Amino acid sequence: MPRAIWSGSISFGLVNVPVKLVTATSPKDVRFHQLHKKDGGRINQRRVCSIDDEEVDYSEIVKGYELHRGQYVIVGPEELEALAPEGSRSIDIEEFVELAEIDPLFFEHSYYLVPDEVAARPYALLVEAMTGTGKVGIGRFVLRTKQYLAALRPRDGALVLSTMLFADEVVGTSDLDVKTTSETKPSDREVTMARQLVESLSAEWEPEKYKDDYRDKVLALVEAKAEGNEIAAPEEPERPAPVVDLMAALEASLARAKEAGQAPEPEAATSGRRRKRASA
């Protein structure tokens, strides 16, 4: 099991469940070091003052918040420590909400919560209760002196904790330059064909189908170069031409899907939607 990075308890009502926080993901980025092209030596990052161009010892560095360009307010470590949230060892669930109500944009990083040996039964009870109701627990906790908003949800008999952004950290769509005008509004026929195309490309979610092709290619390149093989530069892929005729592009996409046996017939797709509405 991964090493615990936090330990405490889940608190909901008068019930406390001792748990440990462990990583739930393992990103596999290809990491490179910066080297001197001339002799292959590692490049060191040094702290240099922008005014006198001299290297500064870490003990002489302070934190400053930029109010205006070039104007800073110095804040000392003791001042920040006095404002730090209380390092309680509790994840306090404040309310339960529907998962579908949370926009994925709010989710940040995910972890697993595993129970201490003495907490196996109340932990299982919480998992069952949340699974049965379809609810997600929303609460706060402190990790490394920072307070986080978090969502707790069941997954395959375990609890997942996802740290979340606060509302003022999410950019609203009203700030974007996306407007619908009479010129950009699609026609009913275009919408119908676009829906048929979506239906033709619909499938069950299978994450194993998706691979990081770029990472695999980079690792293969590194391995080949390490073995002394000569590497031929790949041909630049053709860039798709911009869509000029939207209806023609939709019709061609549907025709290709039908050839692959993916696209439903228009009547079948419509009757399928009617059946779904009737069953709902």
Structural class: alpha+beta
Distance between the termini: 43 Å
Radius of gyration: 27 Å
Regions with little confidence, pLDDT below 50 for 5+ residues: 267-280
Helix content: 25-40%
CATH class of the domain at 6-27 and 84-168 equals: Mainly Beta
Chart the SSEs and their pairings.
Blueprint: E1 6-12, E2 15-23, E3 63-68, E4 71-75, H1 77-83, E5 90-98, E6 107-115, H2 120-133, E7 135-143, E8 146-155, E9 158-164, H3 188-200, H4 213-226, H5 246-259, H6 266-279
Parallel strand pairs: 1-5
Antiparallel strand pairs: 1-2, 2-6, 3-4, 5-7, 6-9, 7-8, 8-9
Explain this structure to me?
By secondary structure, the protein is of the alpha+beta class. Among the domains are: about 5-25 and about 85-170, Ku70, Chain: A, Domain 2 (Beta Barrel); about 180-200 and about 245-280, no CATH class. It is about 25% helix and about 25% strand. It has a 7-stranded mixed β-barrel. The longest helix has 14 residues, at about 120-135. The protein is extended and about 65 Å long.
Sum this structure up briefly.
This protein has about 280 residues and is α+β, with helices and mostly antiparallel strands. It contains 6 helices and 9 strands, in the order E-E-E-E-H-E-E-H-E-E-E-H-H-H-H.
